[in-house]
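User: Batch of two.

Assistant: Item 1 of 2:
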Amino acid sequence: MTSDSPVTYERTGNIARITLRRPPVNALSLEIIRAVVAALRRAADDADARVVVLGSAIAKRFSAGLDLDILLGKPGAEIREFLQALYIDLYDAQYGLGKPSIAAVGGAARGGGMTMAVSCDVVLAAESATFGYPEIDVGVIPAIHYAHLPRIVGRHRAFELLFTGRVFSAAEARELGVVNRVVGDAELEAEVTKLAAQFAGKSAAVLRMGRAAFMRQIDLDYRRSIASAVDDFCNVATSDEAQEGLRAFVEKRPPKW
């Protein structure tokens, strides 16, 4: 990964940083997802990396979610390839990481950007960060979050967020338990580094074994749930209604449902 890559990997001391840098909004392509997965696997193999930070180099943007080129007019097989990377490969890379991961959300996180953020063990957000699941507004569904969000915020609050598509603040995300902590915009980097240093100061062997035990305990049937989410998303995304919603978004007009 070079400095002009859409995803970079850098390690300073014991902290490995994976950074999204695809202007203007870090829209997620298959290339980017695969690069993040490769960077996580690199971090897993990096004996000097004790903690991993996933962040963005784009001001006021974490990630706007999926690049619509992936979905618009594409056959189910191509959509499935992308969802396999975003849902399954990303999950597996995080599951086997062997060290803590921190999402540093300094701006807007939407859809697939939410998937990226919540794949991490801890989520820190700046005060101005915003969150949302806008898929319903373009005729698709945030299928993986049907498995994730109700476990965190409860069935009824999850349903409202997922089926209105409304944007919510970092403060509300903290109240709901979607993020761990909200800090001032100017303090985000320092707070992430401080937390990373706390993790890095622990025994690497104990962290590795403890995290593996933790992941086994919380996994339950989650892996199976996200596998079925790939099917659910693909079934909806290839429908006529979804294709109309996506075209309407690109053409900046109301969809004709």
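Item 2 of 2:
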Amino acid sequence: MDSLPDLAAVEAMDEADPLRVFRSRFALPAGVIYLDGNSLGAASHEVFAEVRQAAMEEWGNGLIRSWNSAGWFHLPLELGDRVGRLIGAAEGQTVVTDSTSINIYKTLHAALAMRPGRNVIVAEGDSFPTDIYMAEGVLSTRPGITLRLEGRDASTIEELIDDSVAVVLVNHVNYKSGELRDMAALTKRIQAAGALVIWDLCHSAGALPVDLDGADADFAVGCTYKYLNGGPGAPAFIYAAKRHHASIVQPLSGWWGHARPFAFEQSFDGDAGIKRFLCGTQPILSLRALKGALSIWDEVDMEALRRKSIALTDLFIRLVETKCGQYGVELETTRDSEKRGSQVSFIHSNAYEVMQALIERGVIGDFRAPSTLRFGFTPLYVSYHDVWRAVTVLEDILSSGSWKDARFAVRGAVT
């Protein structure tokens, strides 16, 4: 193994970083090392400009005229195509709308309708819970449909797939461990069994290159408030391969998904394309914030982003294990960078208290029950020096035992 880099070497890495120019585009608080962009991305200055324009000029002065004059009505499709470029989707296959949870519900129903006679949904037992909860919600409306979970009903998803499976809901990057799945290989395996796949991209969109079309994926969902920096509660997205558009039937048949929404007809006639996944009136101010956030991505080289992500996470793992390994931290994320998203998780028996101590010192990561310290690395605004400083603070907290202060044991809401 190469020798551990010193501070001078880390600073040289920042000097050579082709993405360093993006850091100044974000409104980062002074003195804060932000390693929680996998929960909520930082705001860019472009976001503030878009929201001011939309609220003060378009809403304030344009009023209802802005649905047309400012292009509000077309934002779900316009932004869908911009997200699509980041997830390997050709135009007309992605729409920005609703939340990830609602979009999971819609796509699961759509997939089940496309596979009549099949009665099984497959998902991951260690998925982010909303995926499982929404699958259970679908089951409550579809008598005879059952749910199989990886880790409960079999060790791997592959073992659960047979000719009774209609759809597999799977995360590209595991929210807790950061493990990255092979999208192309698993998609091929699922489709070979006659099933459809829905990829959850919440922890990969904006974190690494994604190629939905290249993998021949069926559906995908994801959020825009993590690595895409769209803001708290920013609208999510749905991808549906064009070959499926004529077959899509989803239960939330709102007026925005109608083929002729302003004809005000009594019966629903779904749009022929990706618009069929729309429901009701869209949150324009949130969409405009996302528009500002996505403007930066037109300039980003996704391969350079991935290289920096790997370098940041590799450096963090090496520094933590070398400087903090003696204090009870254990790596939970894979060491194989090709199988890792843009986050690193460590286990510690007092992870909650340690994380609260870190946050008080200005190093913001997050805690996941029961014992995970989770750190997200957004290459557009996280520097190698940030990594060095974060580990220095973590080492001090662990070596001094300052995390044992009683105030860190008081548990509040953890997002």
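Residues 46-296 form a domain with the Aspartate Aminotransferase; domain 2 fold (CATH 3.40.640.10).
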